[in-house]
Amino acid sequence: MNARIIFANIVIHVKGFIRAKEAVFFTLLFPILLVLLFGAIFQNEDDVHFDLVVQDLDATNTSAKLVKMLELNGTFTITKINSSKDAVEYAKENKVNLVLIIPKGYEEAFFKRMVLNDMNASVNVTYVYDPSSSSATTKMQILNSVFMQMNQNLSGAPPIISITSKSVLVKKYKYIDFFVPGIIAMASMSMSLFGTVSMNAELRQKGIIRKLATTPITRAEWILSNISYQILLSFISTALILIVSFAVFDVSLTINLWLGVFVILNVFAFAGLGMLLTRFAKEAESASAAANAIMFPMMFLAGTFFPLETMPDFLALIAKILPLYYVNEGLRNSMFFLDYTASAFDAAVIGTFAFVVFVLGLFATDWKSDE
Amino acid sequence: MNNSKYPFVDFGSMPEYAIEVENLVKRYKSVTAVDNISFKVKKGELFAFLGPNGAGKTTTVEIIETIRKPTSGLVRVLGLDVMKNKIEIVRKIGVLPQEFSSFDNITVWETVNYYSKLFGMKADVDKLIELVNLSDKRNERYKNLSGGLKQRLGIAISLVNDPEVVFLDEPTTGLDPRARREVWSVLHGLKKEGKTIFLTTHYMEEAELLADTVAIISKGKIIAAGSPNELIDKNTKYMIVTLKNPDKKIPEMLCKMGCEFENSNRDVKIKVERNEEILTILNKLKEENINYNGLDVRKPNLEEVFLNLTGEILHEEAKA
Fold first, then answer.
1. Interval A216-241: pLDDT, tens
2. What structural domains does chain A harbor?
3. What is the pLDDT, as a whole number, of residue A46?
4. Residues of A with CB below 8 A from B65's CB?
5. Tell me: the pLDDT tens digits for A323-340?
6. DSSP letter (8 states) at residue A150
7. Tell me: the pLDDT tens digits for B193-220?
8. With pLDDT > 70 as the criterion, what percentage of chain A qualifies?
9. To the nearest whole number, what is the mean pLDDT of chain B?
10. Are B231 and B198 within 8 A, CB to CB?
11. pLDDT band at A287 (very low <50, low <70, confident <90, very high)
12. CB pairs under 8 A between A and B
């Protein structure tokens, strides 16, 4: 093993990479753009806010208090419509998914119940809504809970069951905290998978491997230099993602040795897969297509963008057989939950996978011979 | 060529040979790409391996370069067996593979420097670049070079380890005539430096112009070997008289005279076996008052040698 040869190879790959603008964009800048984009979309996810259209047919002080109370709740921005309008027509014309109608006689019913103690006095508010809209359902659920709370308060009886919430997390878990470890894993996966496919299939197709075969470089030196180059790129990409995430979104992530462990294991796992791919799909185009076929399920099913809890059970089960899932989980366990026992388990799973695939890939890479 | 039953008795005691190939066979399943060929290349000579596409040239050269394994036979480079001394041989040879390519975004200087590091050599990169006349392109990226410049870079790379034997596999294929001549000029320079050059080509003009020795391979077999002149003298017993743009009645006259001839574009090429026949034809032309724009008398070339030996044309351009 000649260190100078390995170093010369790394240098040539780094130079080639830096000068290929598209490669720099898709490898280093694209993950950062995703962080910025998803971070911006989900930045205010805890601040749930809806528009609510109210038609107050009662137009009394009491009905006005109800509207004010809904406004002060903080969940709704209220738009009032004239009592002369047809609420259904209004909703259709203005593409409004929910109109709350406070009926005439609202104040009177309150007076009868609260002052005259008439237990038969009641009032019925109406929801005019678009059943195809999921946010209308959410709004109605919130309104239901508000009205239930009002009924409870008006009855004067203290609640039997009360609720106390206690977070299991030591700090608040934002979506971006979930997303950043996923994007680190995804970026490192795609660069090692496609990097290996490019090194093996494209260079072979272009005849560069044939030329290298006439030099003293050995297969071990070639593979080791490629792996080192991909680890280097993965660390650069990880550092950039973290710098942007901390600077822009003030993520609550901890950087420790496990980060390095998972990035390295990830590179070995997917470089190994890349080597196996290029054994069976020798043309650069077919190898690249096969790499895409591997990458997309990993991206969307392995809990990179969305938690497994949001998936149907069978998809969540599939996710758990995908290697990237254990990198995602391992990174989150070590960077956010600080659960190093769980990290060790994830590292063992991805480490075993990486070892098996990489060793198979080593045997599969017969780069000097085209017998 | 050596056809002896025990051809290897004196192998190793013949240091004047850079390459020795004996009874080499290479089979791919049912296809025999190289069929029991033998030849030797002297140190310091330019050896041209001439043949059409698919004849077995590249397979043979890649076996000598240690990239491929032979099915049977013995190949030695600088006295070293290719099956046993792969590492030593790789360090002593330089190779320009067929359809050479390199890293798109790496400059000429960086590429030569990279390959010299793979050999663990501190090559004089600038000198190598100058040798192939690429000094003004030293900072140009590979992807921006023309076909001829790429091939010259490939030749520079093949010299980074100061090799004793240089293999150039079709270095001028696909190049325009000017670029081809530029590569030839580089090869002349290498020859002057005393390098042994193993050139595979399907351009007979290239072989004829550059080579000390030519071996012609067809369908996996060597069908002729020797210096270009020897091959021509041995395999062609005639001269070619070309009449430029003659009158249309000349075919009739030549038929009457019993001459072997062919129409080539506007010219007529007549095969003559004796010098006296030329005089006879010229007298007859004068007698019949047949006009023509010029006359050319020459010996046949390797293209015609190949045609005579195989009945096939060497490469597509020769048909034109």
1. 988 888 888 999 999 999 999 999 99
2. 3-42+174-370 (no CATH), 50-163 (3.40.1710.10)
3. 59
4. 214
5. 999 999 999 999 988 889
6. H
7. 889 999 998 888 888 888 999 998 888 9
8. 94
9. 85
10. no
11. confident
12. 68
Q: Which residues of B touch A (CB under 8 A)?
A: 65-69, 87, 90-91, 93, 95, 97-106, 110, 114-115, 117-120, 141, 154, 157
Q: Please report, for chain B, the start and end positions of each structural domain, with discontinuous segments joined by +.
A: 11-233, 238-298
Q: How many residues are given for chain B?
A: 320
> B105–A212: do the CB atoms touch at under 8 Å?
no
Choose the closest CB to B68 out of A4, A20, A371.
Answer: A371
Chain A: residue whose CA lies nearest to B66: A214
CATH classification (class only), B11-233: alpha beta
Q: For chain B, where are the alpha helices, taking DSSP H only?
A: 57-64, 86-92, 108-118, 125-131, 147-158, 177-192, 204-210, 228-235, 250-257, 275-287, 302-310, 316-319
Sign of CA dihedral B131, B135, B141, B146: negative
**pLDDT confidence of residue A305:** 83
ipTM, interface predicted TM-score of the complex: 0.78
Per-residue pLDDT of A119-152, as tens digits, reads 888 889 999 998 887 778 888 888 888 888 888 8
Q: Considering only A5-14, A159-168, A325-334, B47-56, which range has the smallest mean pLDDT?
A: A159-168
* Predicted local confidence at residue B218, as pLDDT: 87
| Residue A172 forms contact with B (CB below 8 Å) | no
Long-range contacts of the stretch A113-116 (C-beta < 8 A, 24+): A113/A154, A114/A154
The residue behind tokens 């010369």 is A8
Instruction: Tell me how close the Cα of A211 comes to any Cα of chain B, in angstroms.
Output: 6
Residues of chain B in contact with residue A214, where contact means CB-CB under 8 angstroms, are: 65-67, 90, 93, 95, 97
Q: What is the mean pLDDT of chain A?
A: 86
Element (H, E) at A192: helix A175-197
Q: Find out if CATH 3.40.120.10 is the number for domain B238-298.
A: no
Q: Tell which A residues from 208 to 237 touch B, by Cβ distance under 8 Å.
A: 208, 210-217
The pLDDT, as a whole number, for residue B299 is 83
Hey, is the C-beta of A24 within 8 angstroms of any chain B C-beta? Answer: no
Nearest to residue A210, comparing CAs of B11, B319, B62, B120?
A: B62
CA distance B108 to chain A (A): 12
Which of B87, B91, B105 should be substituted to probe chain A, the one whose Cβ sees the most A Cβ atoms within 10 Å?
B105
Which of A1, A204, A211 is the best mutation test for B, with the most CBs of B within 10 A? Answer: A211
Q: Does A112 touch chain B (CB under 8 A)?
A: no
Residue type, A309: E
* HSE value, Cβ hemisphere, 13 Å, CA-based, for B231: 28
pLDDT band at residue B140, thresholds of 50, 70 and 90?
A: very high
Do the domains B11-233 and B238-298 sit in the same CATH topology, yes or no?
no
Interface touch A211/B87, C-beta < 8 Å: no
Contact B103 A16 (CB under 8 A): yes
In whole angstroms, what separates CA A135 from the centre of its chain?
Answer: 21
CA of A17 to nearest chain B CA: how many angstroms apart? 8
Inter-helix orientation angle A175-197/A219-249, to 10°:
160
| Least CB–CB distance from B117: residue in A8, A206, A208 | A8
